[in-house]
UniProtKB/TrEMBL annotation:
GO MF entry, a single one: sequence-specific DNA binding
Transmembrane segments: 6-24, 31-51, 57-76, 88-107, 127-148, 160-180, 192-214
UniProt keyword terms in alphabetical order: DNA-binding, Membrane, Transcription, Transcription regulation, Transmembrane, Transmembrane helix
PANTHER family: ARAC-FAMILY TRANSCRIPTIONAL REGULATOR
SUPFAM superfamilies: Homeodomain-like (SSF46689)
Record-given protein name: AraC family transcriptional regulator
HTH araC/xylS-type domain: residues covered: 264-366
Coiled coil regions, renumbered to chain: none
Xref: PROSITE patterns: HTH_ARAC_FAMILY_1, HTH_ARAC_FAMILY_2
Cited InterPro entries: Homeodomain-like_sf, HTH_AraC, HTH_AraC-typ_CS
Provenance organism: Agaribacter marinus
Length: 388
C-alpha cells in the first residue's frame, strides 16, 4: 500500500466517523467533540492528498486541522467523566490552541506566496509555534490522564474501556514521539514518519468509535436487563417490607420496571453508591433518561424522599457492615466513612445517626462489646456441669 493510499483510507475513515456522529439522534457533548475531531483529522488527510495539486492553497485546507490534539482531549473527557465533562472553560482552552494552529497555518501560506519573509513575522511565528507545541504536548498528557483518573472507582466495564483507550492512545503517542524519532534514519524520516502518524490517527479514531458504541449498547443492555428482585433491597427490614407492600399494590409499567432494574444494577450490584459526590444527573446520564424519571422512581418504589437520602441509606448500610467486621477494627471512623462513599466525617455522622440514632463510633463499640459478652456467656455455658 502506498502512502497516498493510506492517506486516502485515513480520509474515508475520518469522514465516516464524522457522519456517524452527525447521525446520532440524542447527541451528547462527546459526540459533538468527536465530530469536530474527526472533521479536523479529515482535513489533515485532505491537505496531504492535495498538497501537490493545490500548492500554497493547501494551507487553506490546513486551517481546518485546528481540532486534533485538543479535540482528542475533549473527547476523552466526554468518554470517561460522568459530570462536568465538557464545559465552557474546556472549550475555550481548546479553542485557544485551535486559534494558534490557524495562525501558524496562515503564516505558512503567506510564506508560500512569498509574502511572509519579514524578520519580525518570522520571530512571531517561531514564538507562536513553540507555545503551540508546548500546549499540544500538555493536552496529550491531559488526554492520557482522563483515562487514568478515577480508574479504581469505576465499574468493571468502564475500566476495560479506559484500558482500551489508554493502550491505543499511549502506543500511538509513544510510536510517533519516541520510536519514530529514535530508530528512523534521518534520510528516510520524511518518507516513513507519515506512516506512523496516519496509522496512529486511524487507530485512535477507530478506538474512540468502538468505545462510544460499547457505551451505547451497554446502556441499552442495562435498560433491558431483567433481574429476579423487582424492588431493590434497602438498608433496613422496615423499608424492605414497605417496598414489598408497595409492589403488591401497584402494577409497575414495563418501562418503569426496566428503569428500576437498571437503577438497582448500577447503584447496588455495581456499588456505584460508593462513588464520592455521586449526583442524580450522573445516574440519569448513565441510563440515558431524564432526571425527573430517576427521581420519581426513587420516591415511588425505593421508599426514599429523594435520591440523596436513598444513596445515604445504602452507604450507611455498607458502613454498618464495615463497623461490624473485626478485620476493619483498625480503620478509623473517617476511613470507614470515606470507604462508604461519604466525602467527609460530618455528613457520615449525620446520615448514620438518622438511621441508627447513634454515632458510628458508638455503634461499633456497642456492637463489639455485645459480641464479646455473648462469646463470654457461651464459654461459661460450656463449662457449666451437665445435670443428669
Amino acid at each position: 500500500m502506498s502512502l497516498h493510499s493510506i492517506y486516502l483510507l485515513f480520509l474515508v475513515i475520518s469522514l465516516s466517523m464524522l457522519i456517524a456522529q452527525l447521525m446520532v439522534k440524542k447527541k451528547k457533548a462527546v459526540h459533538l467533540a468527536f465530530a469536530a475531531f474527526s472533521g479536523s483529522m479529515a482535513m489533515v488527510a485532505a491537505q496531504h492528498l492535495s498538497a501537490e495539486s493545490l500548492g500554497p492553497y493547501q494551507y487553506l485546507i490546513a486551517l481546518g486541522t485546528c481540532v486534533t490534539c485538543n479535540g482528542c482531549w475533549l473527547v476523552a473527557r466526554g468518554l470517561f467523566r460522568t459530570q462536568n465533562a465538557i464545559q465552557l472553560r474546556h472549550i475555550v482552552f481548546a479553542g485557544i490552541i485551535g486559534i494558534l494552529v490557524v495562525f501558524i497555518q496562515s503564516i505558512k501560506m503567506a510564506d508560500a506566496f512569498g509574502a511572509g519573509s519579514s524578520t519580525p513575522l518570522d520571530t512571531i511565528s517561531h514564538f507562536i509555534g513553540a507555545i503551540t507545541e508546548l500546549l499540544s504536548s500538555t493536552v496529550l498528557m491531559l488526554t492520557a490522564w482522563e483515562a487514568i483518573r478515577g480508574f479504581n472507582n469505576d465499574t468493571k466495564i468502564m475500566r476495560y474501556q479506559r484500558m482500551m483507550f489508554l493502550g491505543v492512545f499511549g502506543s500511538a503517542v509513544f510510536a510517533c514521539s519516541v520510536i519514530a524519532t529514535t530508530f528512523i534514519e534521518p534520510s528516510r524520516f520524511s518518507n516513513v514518519f507519515p506512516w506512523f502518524v496516519v496509522v496512529s490517527a486511524i487507530s485512535i479514531l477507530v478506538t474512540i468509535q468502538a468505545i462510544l458504541l460499547w457505551q451505547h449498547y451497554d446502556s441499552i443492555a442495562n435498560k433491558r436487563k431483567s433481574l429476579a428482585n423487582t424492588i431493590p433491597q434497602h438498608c433496613n427490614d422496615t423499608s424492605s417490607q414497605n417496598a414489598a407492600k408497595t409492589n403488591s399494590v401497584l402494577t409497575i409499567p414495563d418501562d418503569e420496571q426496566l428503569l428500576i432494574d437498571a437503577l438497582k444494577r448500577l447503584l447496588i450490584d455495581e456499588k456505584l453508591f460508593l462513588q464520592n459526590n455521586l449526583k442524580m444527573q450522573d445516574i440519569a446520564a448513565r441510563l440515558n433518561v431524564p432526571e425527573y424519571r430517576v427521581s420519581r422512581i426513587i420516591r415511588t418504589y425505593f421508599e426514599a424522599k429523594n435520591f440523596n437520602q436513598y444513596v445515604n441509606q445504602l452507604r450507611v448500610a455498607y458502613a454498618k457492615d464495615l463497623l461490624e467486621t473485626p478485620d476493619y477494627n483498625h480503620w478509623t471512623i473517617l476511613v470507614i466513612g470515606l470507604e462508604s462513599g461519604f466525602a467527609s466525617i460530618g455528613p457520615f455522622n449525620r446520615a448514620f445517626k438518622s438511621v441508627f440514632n447513634c454515632s458510628p463510633n458508638a455503634y461499633r463499640q456497642d456492637f463489639h462489646n455485645n459480641s464479646n459478652n455473648r462469646n463470654l456467656e457461651f464459654k461459661i455455658d460450656e463449662k457449666a456441669p451437665i445435670n443428669s
